[in-house]
Amino acid sequence: MSRFLRLSILVTGLLFISACILTECGNPAPVPNPLIEGLILRVDPQPSTYSTLDQVINYNFVVTNSTTSTLAGAVTVSDSKMTTVACPALNTVGDLNADLDVNESITCTGSYRITQADITAGSMINRSTATAGGRISNTVDTTIQMPPNPVLGLAVTANPTTYCQEGQIITYTYTITNTGPLPLGPAQFIVRDDRIAAPINCGQALTTLTTNQTVTCTSTYTITATDLTVSSITSNASASGAGAGTAQSASVPVAKCGGIPPVNPNYQTGTTIRHPVVKGEWMLQISRCYGANYAAVRAANPQIIDPHWIYPNWDTVSVPNIGSNGRVYGPPCIAFYTVKSGDTWQSIANDPSHNADIEVLMEANQKVTLSAGQVVKVPLNSRLSPITPGTAIPPTAIPPREPVRLNFPAGSPTVTLSGTIGTPDTIRHVFTGAQGQILTVRLTVPTNDVGLAIYAPGGAALKPLDNTLSWSGTLTTNGDHFIDLVSSLGSTNKTYSLEVTLITPAPASPIERVADINAGVGDSNPSHLSVFNGQLYFQANANDGAGAELWRYDSGLKAVSRVADINAGAGGSEPSFLTPYSDNLYFRANGNDAAGSELWRFNGTAAGRVTDLNSGAADANPMYLTVFNNALYFSANGNDGKGIELWKYDGTVTSRVADINPDAGDSSPAYLAVFNNALYFSATSTDGAGTELWKYDGTTTTRVADINVGVGNSNPAFLTVFNNILYFSANANDSAGTELWRFDGTTATRAADINAGAADSVPTYLTVFNNTLYFSANGDAAGFELWKYDGTNISRVSDINTAGGSNPAFLIVYNNELYFQANANDGAGAELWKFKGP
Q1: How far apart, in Å, do the first and last CA atoms of the chain sit?
Q2: Residue 246's pLDDT band (cuts 50, 70, 90)
Q3: Share of the chain above pLDDT 70, in %
Q4: Residue 176 exposed, middle or buried by CB count within 10 Å (0-12, 13-18, 19+)
Q5: Is the pLDDT of residue 296 over 70?
Q6: Cα 382 vs. chain centroid, distance in angstroms?
Q7: How many Cβ atoms from other residues are within 10 Å of residue 826's Cβ?
Q8: Which DSSP helix (H) or strand (E) runs through 331?
Q9: DSSP string for 365-402
């Protein structure tokens, strides 16, 4: 398809929409707004959030005279955050006199640069008032916040980990991590520790943390006489800074020296002990108790068939060569502890009087649910008495299983292992998991007498022990997790296969389809998107017998609904160029009421035709509706012999503003946009310059640029203001095709050649979002997709349709997200989509 034909189809499709001839639709009278007596101030900040130091927030202060009398003199605005707010002279707006007339508005501007105090606070409030003719307006408090960010991560360690005397110094080291997707700072990050009076500054006063970046700081604590009266002390800390939420608390215990029993002087290293078994003991724990080699103890007691099951007051265990594999503590080897409110497996293990290893503690209490009043068995001193494999064990002696560490192969989320489990027997597997990961476990055994249990760090049961041999779920905690295989019934030597899959989900896509209005492969073609009364309105066709009509999307309900069937029946009214003005939503529509395509409005409840500009059944076709100087401007054909020209509606009367292409010729003004207190648009004149860039200053229309010099058309389209510059698409006939252009108020220049060379990128639907210019364009092999330009760099944002262009169209910002029409080629057709932002 030639470049000229493609551009012709684009322009023709936007300028001409067929009229529908269907049944009559009602024409309710406009609903007047109640008169508000006073000087009314409205404040609009752009952008509505901030994230970096020295970021500039631009404000529009709209001052409206809602009294019943004219207010004389200049309009001024005072703001608590700004030294100066600029208001234009009154003789440059409205009827151009020196007064603020009844219902007349004036827009003042100001800007504010984000300070370090704002970054630290996480939000900023400015208070504004306006004055005119001796009247003072309402006071407006405007709050701008930093975007929400996940909490800071915090880890704390102590050195040394024990204390023995008053005055001893404990040094705490704190590591703060930015766990969120956005940079934090520059700011002062702070740690607060309940054992240290003053806040602790972490890093420099202006520290910036990118995602997963850390900053470390230290502080000291001096042991007191009171600390010597308890078995341990615990430091509890939290972190904050740069507007992030307070970190999840982190704590570290430090044990008193006396909390760990010394080597028992009643036992001589290297001797053999005859140990009488007491309730709850098992052979491996007895070996730890005496610092003996477990293999040697197992071999010295062939009379004990199962080392897990030894009987108190009956069995005696021979323990040879005590102290050969660790410290000799001696009995008691275990203790029974009654759980208190707030206890965790970790806190019980860390109790200096227990000195227990958490994995051994949890293994000894597999069937116990941790709760206040529950009695648990504690393997005393198991933390500091490592047991290592010894010499060969006789085949008939089966030692208890040590935990098996699962290591996932590089590039694979799955580990599979197999083996044999006895009866009674427990096989514990341990792996390191992270919050948000998806764990799937499948156990295969030939019988149904093996149980499966899965535990989170700290002992909470993700899957209680039962005979359901599969589980899948999302991990909620970081740290070591446990998978237990337990056999207490049936035959010995049962084979098993265990498959464990740990998947880290890909980050959620910032682009998603919002609704499939025309369910299935059909296109609903949501178009002419506009925000009105806090909801998103647009034209759509649900293929439900109503045609293309007025719809809306409620982000709170996450639901779409048709709000009006203007052209009742199967024919659509095709509402187009939706624009809010004077508390109503205005648009072009055909109500099949013998008036053709004319100007309509919707007040939130009912829709009605405003005027019949081209009398009778002929179409006025009002297009490119834009608010300028408190009036609604548009392109239309008034059937007054002047063709398609620039018109306006002031809330009461419609009138033609100019006849740019004199007499019956069409200037076809299009893509209207307000820039530098003037109305800019594309128009065609008869002076040999073709279709070029024009402006209207409230009195006069003039051509401001001849981009395609001579009789050629540059066809400027989709005019949008970004960074105080007017951007649009155009073709200068200079072998660069239709590309992105800019006009600074004096000169028009090409901003970028997105599709390099003579090919066209055809940037369309230019819209400012997150301080960046977004648009649809064809810049590479991906076809027409979503692109962005930050004033310097230009790049494609996404490839929604990987098999071809998704053709994003009718871009608009709603609820701090970018909404548009697109087709992902996934069987849903052209529907409503949104981009959440980078």
Answers
A1: 34
A2: low
A3: 90
A4: buried
A5: yes
A6: 45
A7: 14
A8: none
A9: TTTPPP-TT-EEEEETT-TT------SPPPTT--PPPP
